[in-house]
Request: fold
Amino acid sequence: MENIMQIKDLKTYFDNTNVLKGVTIDIPKHEVTSIIGPSGTGKSVFLRTLNRMNDVISTFRKEGTILLDGEDIYDSKVDVVDIRKRVGMVFQKPNPFPKSIFENVAYGMRVHGAYKKAQLQEVVESSLKNAALWDEVKDDLDKSAMSLSGGQQQRLCIARTIAVEPEVILMDEPCSSLDPISTTKIEDLIHKLKNDFTIIIVTHNMQQATRVSKYTAFFLNGTIVEKGLTDKIFIEPEDKRTEDYITGRFG
Amino acid sequence: MARNWEEFFIEKILLIAAISSIIIIIAIIGFVVGQGYTALGTIGILNFIFGLIWNPEYGLYGIFPLIIGTLSVVAVSLLFAVPLSILGAMFLAEVAPRTMRRILRPTIQTLAGVPSVIYGFFGLIVLVPFMRTHFGGSGFSILTASLILTVMVLPTILSISEDALRSIPVEYKEASLGLGATHWQTIKNVIFPAAIPGVITGVILGMGRAIGETMAVLMVAGNVPLIPTSILSPVRTLTANIALEMGEATGLHYNALFATGIVLLGIIIILLLIVNWVNYRQRVTIGGGYL
Amino acid sequence: MNRMIPPKYAQKIMNVVFWAVGILAIAILVMVIGYLLYVGLPQVNLTFLFSDPIDNGAAGGIWPSIVSTFYITIVALVVAAPLGVLAAVYLAEYSGENTFVKTIRFATETLASVPSIVFGLFGLAFFVVYLQMGFCILAGGLTLALMAIPTILRTSEVAIETVPQSYKEGSMALGSSKWQTVIRVVIPAAIGGITTGIILGMARAIEETAAILYTVGATTTVPVSLFDGGDPLPLHLYTLATEGISLPNAYGTAAVLVILILVITFSTNYLVERYTKKMMGR
Reply:
């Protein structure tokens, strides 16, 4: 088994508030890894550190290393833009741009220098197909993305992300604002996507973790309490706190 | 029951205060039009607006050169001020680090608060001699007035644009950055297009301020009521015309200056209607918008 | 789109441009204010501030102008502050959103955008001629009041609207009437914003020139009654500068005006900052 990302002793600070207190985990390639845990334990912060999204916040500071394909993504020689291209992100709330469906998917390629209409069309089509949205929108590509339903918008955001062909896709509770049917569609999509991409998904929903992921890490108060195969964690957790959480005794 | 009467009474007082704006604006329009329309009748609206010569001593009241004067000064100043303001707004809203913002924001605010007569005075003693030395002529010109006006309208356009840029949901920005766009690409392709209605509002309000500005322009534009031939020609604006001649005007001349005021008021009201229309469109199209 | 320039370089170029624009804005302010203080401050001393001008300002001081500015600003505020604040209370607390309120808003917006020289025309036609006040402090002050109303109104309205609904509900739930709630809860909570609005209105009155050009006259003696003419600072500066009376005295007057405005701007900033801190602290 090959690990695409290796995170070692990661600590993060906002001003002087310590959020992550030493997180170490390896992310296996072309698998789905779930991050579970109660609110406010640093799951989102962790995810946003993996594509340097926290760089936007001026008070953010981190210690420890994050390797992507063996290369430190916080190295001063590394281009942050390149990292975000390689590590894509799908957000909690669908956030399509107020542009047409086509332009949303084409956006990433445009900013990375693709201008030929034919090439754009090809990638837009394949990305939308990959995101299981093509059949629903193929006649309305010029319509505003805002006219889509919440579930469609989220799949559009996934299509937009895979159009850039990242190696890793980070998903921050991608279904939290969606109805059950849309959630099922996204989960099916995640299953399909793991053939081509590595996926790290933060979720509040433990059934979702068991359904979509092979590996799971349980976060509590800025540290990982337990990590490993999802089946093992949910069936016979080693740590008492993990057991309490998955059986709903706190959280 | 006494309390109900009191409440009723207070509400009526507040209502009167609230409609005072309406009363004042109607009174202003009423009096300015009242004093000006006789001149329009005597001179003829077309002769007044398109007349090429303003020379009250000979009974010639054509404000066309003044309209051109106002337009040229406003156009040139916007040419400088719009790009500067938009870049400045992007800088403040997106790029500038905290310490820089803490310096720049009060700076812009102070620039907005400097009295126009101070800008005019600075223009008169510094900019006019400078232009005279480097560009020839008297130094009083469209360009000189435009440079001063640029500084005066910059705060208006900049702060409204900054608000507009700031109001764009952070999710758009994150989505764009998350796709590996650079910060500039994100600003240019996502944040700015979404903020355009607000920016337009800022530009129009800045334009209104430039059209209405009197003292600064009066002191540096040269005030020659002729159609300018170059950017270095002196011009007289509509506002300057009133300020210059009101002191000694009587009879038809006095009324003609009020008629100039009517034209100014008309332009400002049209601009405001456009702003309201843009804002209305913005409200209607947000959410379902296609940019 | 910049097909030619790679995104990374475009980013670098734009960073330079952004910083240049920001620094330019600061440089302009420093240059204008710095220069005027540099040439003006040496002219300012106690004699200059507190003595009468000689020969229309060719020599002597600016005391009558300081008094005129003071009077005219007081007149403007006495009229504009209550009207503006009460109107703001009505718009924020007593009215819904209907055509009537929209009309009031549009009227206020228009009032805020009317060129100052047009206010001057109105002041001349209405206060000076129609009401037969003549050129005087009162006519000028009332004209300035009309200009200050929209500033005070809008700033106060925003301040009142940001008072949390829970405060109002808390008061109402105790059986207070609407007006009692406004007086005891809403206005105290919004007082910082309202004060800011009044100071901004004051700044507008102090700096305005065009609107008083043909309403206060240009008497260079100290005004005693409201019906005396006056020569407020900006007007005095304008006359000195454009009629070539005395450049040194113009420098001095400009410096005094600049300092006045700087003091006002900084005190507003200070107030706003303290106010927001206090509100956030709760």
